[in-house]
Structure to design on (275 residues):
């Protein structure tokens, strides 16, 4: 890939607006292009898509979502190259396909199909489990996403000694460097004799700054990560860890943190190339 590409999934919802801004900020920081993708589901159903006496046309409405998203991104981050498109299909498969030639995909935790109480929609779960690149899930009520610099909270990285968590470490450290943020590596142990790699050594070979801490705690990993990330600029986890079933795409720690975090969460899939 010559120039980097950040993709944001858009659906005209307020959460998507936060995703657009987060993605635009990150595209600018990376010197990457921003691609705004709207999954248009209606062609999959047998409905008339054109304008009628009753409605201006679903396709026209979808194109308006794309147009407004482009305007919003360009206004928010004038220096970046922005493209937008409508792609026929359900959001998760459309964004999974887009992830194949992206460096990062950004989505809101909730879209228009709001299920009461749930923090992460089905798109988020499906995408974080199956994406080919890292995925960032932002929060709909995240006012600080629009003023990232106003909240220089740490990048919180979950480390369990697994190779996906090392990818999370790489991604988190790069993000922290790019945005001049402190780093907090959390290594949680359920049991005192539960060996969990050597976070000091892993950090030493990757980081030469002086603003990183390693927090070792005993307790449930997801609970501890949530507790230690209330002020995080970003939480970074591997999609999988050391446990779980062979075929599992998203571990229980990642799922729980995605469901309950109040801060943006980056999930690094095993299939992601580099950071
Ligand atoms: N003990 C831990 N301490 C810190 N971070 C952790 C810990 N366990 C998991 N994580 C983080 O969560 C990510 C996903 O791991 P998770 O535990 O969810 O998957 P798994 O081990 O494959 O499955 P499961 O634990 O549900 O059986 C890891 O890559 C790591 O970033
Ligand atoms: Mg685990």
């Amino acid at each position: 890939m010559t120039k980097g590409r950040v993709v944001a999934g858009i659906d005209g919802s307020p959460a998507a607006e936060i995703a657009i801004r987060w993605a635009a900020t990150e595209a600018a920081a990376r010197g990457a292009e921003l691609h705004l993708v709207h999954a248009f589901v209606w062609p999959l159903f047998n409905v008339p898509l054109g304008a009628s006496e009753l409605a201006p046309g679903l396709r026209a409405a979808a194109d308006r979502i794309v147009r407004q998203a482009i305007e919003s991104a360009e206004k928010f981050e004038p220096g970046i190259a922005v493209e937008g498109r409508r792609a026929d299909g359900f959001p998760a498969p459309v964004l999974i396909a887009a992830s194949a030639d992206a460096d990062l995909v950004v989505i809101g935790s909730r879209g228009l199909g709001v299920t009461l109480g749930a923090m992460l929609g089905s798109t988020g779960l499906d995408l974080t489990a199956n994406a080919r690149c890292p995925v960032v899930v932002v929060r709909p009520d995240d006012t600080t996403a629009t003023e990232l610099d106003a909240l220089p909270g740490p990048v919180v990285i979950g480390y369990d000694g697994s190779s996906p968590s090392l990818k999370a470490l790489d991604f988190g450290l790069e993000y922290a460097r790019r945005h001049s943020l402190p780093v907090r590596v959390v290594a949680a142990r359920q049991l005192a004799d539960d060996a969990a790699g050597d976070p000091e050594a892993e950090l030493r070979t990757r980081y030469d700054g002086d603003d990183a801490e390693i927090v070792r705690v005993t307790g449930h990993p997801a609970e501890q990560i949530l507790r230690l990330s209330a002020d995080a600029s970003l939480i970074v986890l591997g999609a999988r860890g050391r446990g779980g079933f062979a075929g599992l795409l998203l571990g229980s720690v990642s799922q729980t943190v995605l469901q309950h975090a109040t801060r943006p969460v980056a999930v690094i899939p095993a299939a992601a190339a580099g950071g």
User: Anything to note?
Assistant: The chain has eight helices and ten strands. The pocket of magnesium ion (ligand 2) is lined by residues 160, 241-244, 251, 253 (CB under 6 Å).
